[in-house]
Amino acid sequence: MKPNYQLDVADDCSRAVKRACHTNPSVSCGDCRLGELCLPIALDAQEISHLDEIVKRGRNLKKGDYLYREGDEFNSIYAIRAGSFKTFKSSWDGVEQVTGLYLPGEILGMDGISNNRHGGSAVALETGSFCEIPFHQLEELSARIPSLQGRFFRLMGQEIVKDQQMLTLLSSNAAEERVAALLLSISSRNHRRKLSPFNFRLPMTRAEIGSYLGITLETVSRVFSRLSKQNIVAVDNKEIQLLDISALKAVAKVKMGCS
Fold first, then answer.
1. Shared-domain flag, residues 135 and 182
2. Which domain holds residue 133?
3. Model pTM above 0.85
4. What pLDDT is recorded for position 144?
5. Which residue has the higher pLDDT, 162 or 62?
6. What number of CA atoms fall less than 13 Å from residue 53's CA on the CB side?
7. DSSP per residue, 55-119
8. Number of domains, the chain
9. How does strand 56-61 pair with strand 85-90?
């Protein structure tokens, strides 16, 4: 059994003696402990102060609240400070297709850059907060700060790579491989956020996972049951414990953890 290193937000912040809590709306980009995952990673102190001037902080949403809706005018991109968000598209008959999962430190909303309209919707999976970055102001600032522009281009490139990986996953992989790859992705993303890579809570329901991975809810449940019986993972509703990372990677058919 791996020990549970994951702390809840309140406990994490109370122990953050030498670093500012990222959920505090007064915390600037330079002090935010998620900065290394977000835009400020490539900036010096003066450049961060310029970014601070355009960022709108302290925006909160409850579970089920929309960050933006499909077809909304594109004005901003969003950096997640706390909580988790899903993106999805709706078919003509109202069926929801989950297209993405976003965790603290990650950027969403870039789907609207191409035609100034959001191609999908984004909704909070739990109570969360975010920073809003007006895109036209970010463009102007990037023109003056090459390192910021370079960082933003890299983030866009990462989104393209993630989309390509998901298309590959959905086109050729079995259900077990898809679920294993998702668990490894959350594990490695937690590790980058200095949370436990072995113990975490799934932000999405089984139905949402099925929609995201292109399999049925029943298949998702069967896969979790098989992984549990094989002592690869321990499952308690949404609580997940990865017991054997090597075996999980073998199921996912990868040599390294997904990102």
1. no
2. 12-168
3. no
4. 82
5. 62
6. 9
7. -EEEEEE-TT-EEE-TTPBP-EEEEEEES-EEEEEE-TT--EEEEEEE-TT-EE-GGGTTTSB-S
8. 2
9. unpaired
